[in-house]
Amino acid sequence: MNALAATNRNFRHAARLLNLDSKVEKSLLIPFREIKVECTIPKDDGSLASFVGFRVQHDNARGPMKGGIRFHPEVDHDEVNALAQLMTWKTAVVNVPYGGAKGGIGCAPKELSLRELERLTRIFTQKLHDLIGVRTDVPAPDMGTNAQTMAWILDEYSKFHGYSPAVVTGKPIELGGSLGREAATGRGVIFATEALLADHGKSINGLTFAIQGLGNVGSWVARLVHERGGKIVAVSDITGAVKNPNGIDIPSLLEHKEETGSLSSFDGGDSMNAKELLVHECDVLIPCALGGVLTRENAGDVKAKFIIEAANHPTDPEADEILSKKGIVVLPDIYANAGGVTVSYFEWVQNIQGFMWDEEKVNNELKKYMTVAFNDIKNMCQTHECSLRMGAFTLGVNRVARATLLRGWEA
Ligand code: NAD
């Protein structure tokens, strides 16, 4: 099932549990605005190249729309649409005053030079500048984009509207980025995991973990689990996988990856088939890489007792049903990986205040937001007798529906 079909299915299930009016349901499902633009740039060799860019602005009932910009060859409209909708529910779950959006350009960033990437980003910004803004739609980095991309957007947008650091988040610190933003999604995953485990009378210390993906999110998750005494028995990335029943020395593994660019030839464990990571013996499985990795084909073989969805949409709805029947507890993406957007909100607040917080304040506030959201989700689970995924969806959808109704329909 593709990401849009799965997201719509979860939304409709939540709408039924909430007994949502059918007109409100329809209005929440249809995006506020969908933008498609053509971006033509001169390449370094003087030839022209054209790329298609999208921005889907899903909902703004609770505040400016918020979501990443992805540069990837497979960026397509349906996926951007699903991710924009997920952002609406995610920002509502953690109760930051935003709606949801997502965007992207269909391109292979690794095949473009730095100058070509800069030109492409600036052209995209020129086409969007009237439709994004500090109080309208605030982009952030996503796959294939980074703090440098945000710096170019800030600069191009500021040519039209005056200096506007709050128009994007995930910026370099020198341009108003927040301390703690780089680690925020991974740190948020850890706070979410701690809240879930505490609810089951457990803690990270002493449990075994398997982690898929060692990029921005996965490397922070691995580092912080290790620091808290969790035993990481398997990790994988695009280059391979490593296992060690006695626990992998994560700082050494990250150093090895930094030096060699690969997990292979690491001598602190045995290499394994990366596909087996998801069904490896462990207490807690944390997918931190791609979407759609847990399917009806492998869900029956999962041995973990808890799954923390650090990646976006790692579990198909069919897999969800199988995992639930097996009694495996799944902490859903729209809560588990919301630490990134929460600290993006702190960055926006700091830019508007013109005042920089220290990292301790950022991390303490993040912990508060993640802990309160977990308790709010649990309350919804009790009210609607539902899974954590439906607890999170009903929480997010209900907050957006209430905001929509309070704002009214009069034109
Ligand atoms: P990233 O590009 O930094 O890292 C992705 C990692 O996945 C890399 O280590 C890569 O080697 C690995 N990977 C790719 N294919 C793999 C495969 N087949 N098997 C095993 N590993 C594989 O990306 P990221 O920013 O860490 O994001 C990871 C996930 O978290 C994505 O689903 C993203 O949408 C989600 N997410 C990220 C953020 C954020 O702030 N970065 C916020 C919310 C959600």
Structure overview:
This protein has 411 residues and is of the alpha/beta class. The chain folds into two domains: 32-175, 3-Layer(aba) Sandwich (Rossmann fold); 178-353 and 365-411, Rossmann fold (3-Layer(aba) Sandwich), CATH 3.40.50.720. 45% of the residues lie in helices and 17% in strands. The chain has helices at residues 3-17, 22-29, 77-93, 114-128, 147-161, 181-199, 216-227, 250-260, 317-325, 333-336, 339-353, 359-384, 388-407, and strands at residues 33-42, 48-59, 65-72, 100-106, 137-141, 208-212, 231-237, 240-243, 270-272, 284-287, 306-308, 329-331. Helix 9 (317-325) links the parallel strand 11 (306-308) and strand 12. Helix 1 runs parallel beside helix 3 (77-93).
**Which architecture of the largest domain does the CATH hierarchy give at level 2?**
3-Layer(aba) Sandwich
Number of helices: 13
Distance separating the two termini: 37 Å
- SSE topology string: HHEEEHEHEHHEHEEHEEEHEHHHH
Q: What composes the largest sheet?
A: 7 strands, mixed
CATH C-level label of the largest domain: Alpha Beta
Task: Please state the oligomeric state of the protein chains shown.
Answer: single chain
Shape: globular
Bound ions, cofactors and other small molecules, one mention each = nicotinamide-adenine-dinucleotide
Full CATH superfamily name of the largest domain: NAD(P)-binding Rossmann-like Domain
Number of domains: 2
> How big is the Rg?
21 Å
The CATH topology of the largest domain: Rossmann fold
As residue ranges, the low-confidence spans are none
> Beta-sheet strand percentage?
15-25%
